[in-house]
Write a structure and sequence with these properties.
This protein is an alpha/beta fold. It contains nine helices and five strands, in the order βαβααααββαααβα. Helix content is 53%, strand content 12%. Helix 3 packs antiparallel against helix 5.
């Protein structure tokens, strides 16, 4: 089974790439969605997050308030490191389980979508790394349109991530995504056909 890691900084268009690949028949394991599962009320990870960051990150319904947690960790490198130490091992195991499940069902290829694929040292989970890149301006415009997040928060998150150019040394393929959806679809489709016919 071919496992392709799709990574890139916030707003680069990782999810759009995975959506295109899904239309081509390649399922996605989304690390961010798995984080939602890991944060489930009364889970071990949920309790650890409260122990470290306090009860004020919990909503009335018991769920972790990801926006409040984000405000804490993206303004403090130390807090971000604490979050990653708690969450990354849990999500790594969840990704591993899903890869094994797809493999058992005879799936030919899957993608693992993870913004921190390189930083978390998850590249060993995948066969190929596809890096999606967009300028800070493009990323900010996309995030402002699609998320309830301020420009200050966007810039804070962008600065907290490893620069995309630094990630290039880990990438097998680079997908530049400052254009429109049609251009991205053409590029991803070409890339997939090149890999799938090898």
């Amino acid at each position: 089974m071919l496992i392709i890691g799709i990574t890139g900084n916030i707003g680069s268009g990782k999810s759009a790439v995975c959506q295109i690949l899904a239309k081509l028949g390649v399922p996605t394991i989304d690390a961010d969605k798995l984080a939602h599962e890991a944060y489930k009320p009364h889970s071990r990870t949920w309790q650890e997050l409260i122990n470290v960051f306090g009860r004020n990150i919990v909503k009335v319904n018991g769920e972790i308030d990801r926006q409040k947690l984000g405000q804490i960790v993206f303004s403090s490198p130390h807090a971000l490191a604490q979050l990653n130490r708690i969450v990354h091992p849990c999500i790594y195991c969840m990704v591993q389980e899903r890869i094994e499940n797809y493999s058992c069902h005879g799936v030919g290829a899957v993608t693992v979508e993870a913004a921190l694929l390189v930083e978390a040292d998850w590249t060993k989970l995948v066969d190929k790394v596809w890096l999606v890149m967009a300028s800070d301006n493009t990323a900010s415009q996309r995030l402002t349109q699609h998320k309830e997040i301020s420009t200050v928060q966007i810039l804070s998150r962008l600065r907290s991530q490893m620069p995309a150019r630094e990630k290039m040394k880990y990438a097998d393929e680079i997908i530049y995504n400052d254009g429109d959806m049609a251009q991205l679809e053409t590029r991803v489709t070409e890339l997939w056909h090149r890999f799938s016919t090898r």
